[in-house]
Amino acid sequence: MAETPRPIEERLPHLRRGLRDASHLLVCLDFDGTLAPIVEEPAAATITPTNVAALEALGSDERVRTAVVSGRGLADVRERVDAPDVYAGNHGLEIAGEGSVAVHPVARERAALIGAVCGFLEIALESVPGSRVENKRLTGTVHVRSVPESVRPLVRRTVDDAVSLFGEGDLEVSAGRCVIEVSPAIDWGKGEAVAALTEGHPGDPFVVYAGDDVTDESAFRTVEPGGLGVLVGERRESAASAWLHSPAATASLLWWLADVGVELLADGESGRFPRERDTGSERYHNR
Predict the structure, then answer these.
(1) Is residue 202 located within the same domain as residue 167?
(2) How far apart are CA 120 and CA 133, in angstroms?
(3) Residues designated as active site
């Protein structure tokens, strides 16, 4: 049941207990709005330096595995961050790690339909100010952040019509934060991707998932209540039980896990959640 998540500090007892009971830690993170601030032009999104440094520190422990789980295409997200052990692109339809890439077979088969829909929409929406169609091979995205609010329903209807024309029954349409997504009509998303990563992790890991969008809700449901789902950004009802207000606060969580959380895995020590830090080179102090 969706509720308003609590500030991360109030969920620290649960986090500490979970880490003490686990031998390993799996940290999964969305990219836009979680590791990188939301920007007007998605191509300009950049992970914050503090998150880069924190991810590198966290991943240096052999008991920890980190993953970026993004709606971006796999090649795109890999170009933007090189610290994690695993990448899951296109909402988990393609997963890369340990020298191999796995692609959902149905998504691969329907890539041509995605291409046809995106090609149609590029022409149909050409006159709509601010719209942009992105073909990510396994999924398609229509960006509407810069589209006037009054025109967005028309864009949605156009996307629905395109899917009905080229992929009825094989493709589906969903809405995210200022985007309209076209994807294969299969029971697979970020939640299933995180479940697969958990099953493939050594030992019985405690799982943390942080994300900001409605597309992250399936992942929150997968990790809660045994793990910890963390909503980043605007506070709203969510399947996540914890909340952080920005990508800058994500870095604070990652540093806490790197400096305190991994020690909990080993010997059950406790720690306080740090205040935000302005630069990746600064270290917080537990008091």
Answers:
(1) no
(2) 10
(3) 30
